[in-house]
Amino acid sequence: MSVSAEPRPVPEPGDPGVSGAPGSSGGAAGTQPPRxxxxxGGIAACAAVGSGLAVLVTLTAIGWIxxxxxxxxxxxxxxxxxxxxxxxxxxxxxxxxxxxxRIGMLPLGLVLLxxxxxxxxxxxxxxxxxxxxxxxxxxxxxxxxxPYALLAGALxxxxxxxxxxxxxxxxxxxxxxxxxxxxxxxAARGLAPWSRLAxxxxxxxxxIILGMLGAAAILGLVGSVLAAVSLAANLSGVRAASDALGxxxxxxxxxxxxxxxxxxxxxxxxxxxxxGPGFAFGAxxxxxxTGTVLGAVPAFPMLAALPSGAHPGGPAWLPVLVLAxxxxxxxxxxxxxxxxxxxxxxxxxxxxxxxxxxxxxALAGLAAAFSGGPLGDGRLAAVGPSGFEVGxxxxxxxxxxxxxxxxxxxxxxxxxxxxxxxxxxxxxxRPPAPDSGxxxxxxxxxxxGLGLVKTGGxxxxxxxxxxxxxxxxxxxxxxxxxxxxxxxxxADWPAQEPPASPDDR
Length: 505
Known about the structure:
Strand order of the largest sheet: 2-1-3
Distance between the termini: 79 Å
Strand content: under 5%
Shape: flat
Structural class: mainly alpha
Order of helices and strands: HHEEHHEHHHHHHEEEHHEHHH
Helix content: 55-70%
Number of helices: 15
Number of strands: 7
Largest sheet: 3 strands, antiparallel
């Protein structure tokens, strides 16, 4: 499946519009031939890396000037190395600090910076590289991701010091995957709008993907509300932690940016709390709806919003409401799945609903795995939710609920469609009254009407009983009557005497 656009004209060397050709009026009005895709991807990768580094170098320099005691480094070299390390952290690359251990608890909000830049770079590659078909988007994404990963590896080697050393393998792999996904999305968006790209998918995969995204959106909304409520309830503790740090004006601005970059982590942790497994902040700790066991936490203002009591505060119905939200997301996923592509095969609807719910659960587990990580080799080596536990619980809760909701919604859709179709078939396909008397056979119209209701009358329903090519075998209701007439004619033929010829007389 491809979306074609008008390709850019590639002029011949003798065309009058080309700069330098005989009779050319100038290079401004000429059209240059497109660059090779490898060259275009390399230029876009360099521009993306340079743009991200420019933003982070500016922020790091401001922090170095306004808050020199935060340990950014000495001199311009220290500022550049710190900015390069932050750029790698924005790609979710962990690093090892001497004397402390591995640091893997990284802010997911920073991923938005290279993600947005790579989406823009992917669109630029498509436009400049004259890519006109969706089947070539993968080549454009690889042409961008490969040099981008090489530059990330070079920055990992350049920013490594005796104090902090980023992981080279993780830098290359994470930057390649991020550039491949974000650049591919940008390249596809450069060829067609999102609505058209979504409609290029077949109905069944589109229904599963949109059902998964709907459930994930509900979980994200619930997690955002829960995190905001917890922060508002512990606002005095957050303010006290900020005052205890005494960062000053410039340091307070940087501290606010750091907390905003950890907002996606907080939302994912709240989703894990809603699902039931919760999360940990150190060895032997747990934060869950059933209770909280916490130890000493670092002096970071956002951490003051963590619940500290052994039992959740508030009314008794609040934990029940929180734990019911994943089932609401499952119902929404199942309904969306069958609303987009209902099926006449009754037993298939729960399967597709479960597929959408299970995909949403797997997405929640993957997000939980990336939202946490170690903060050294000591007591804080286990921070954040367990991706396996969150994913397994989410698949069971959301998947089973989505299967039941899809079965119920699909049954209602088929029932309503059957009623409309039966009414329309009775009004438009009723035959004229037969000539025979009362009690005669009504003919094949009854069977024809039932066949139409069963196969072709359900508008918008994906008939999954067909084969892969979409062929159908239609039943001829008059075939038996025609065979009977042919048999009668063949049986009467020998009994008929031929007309007498003149010679017999």
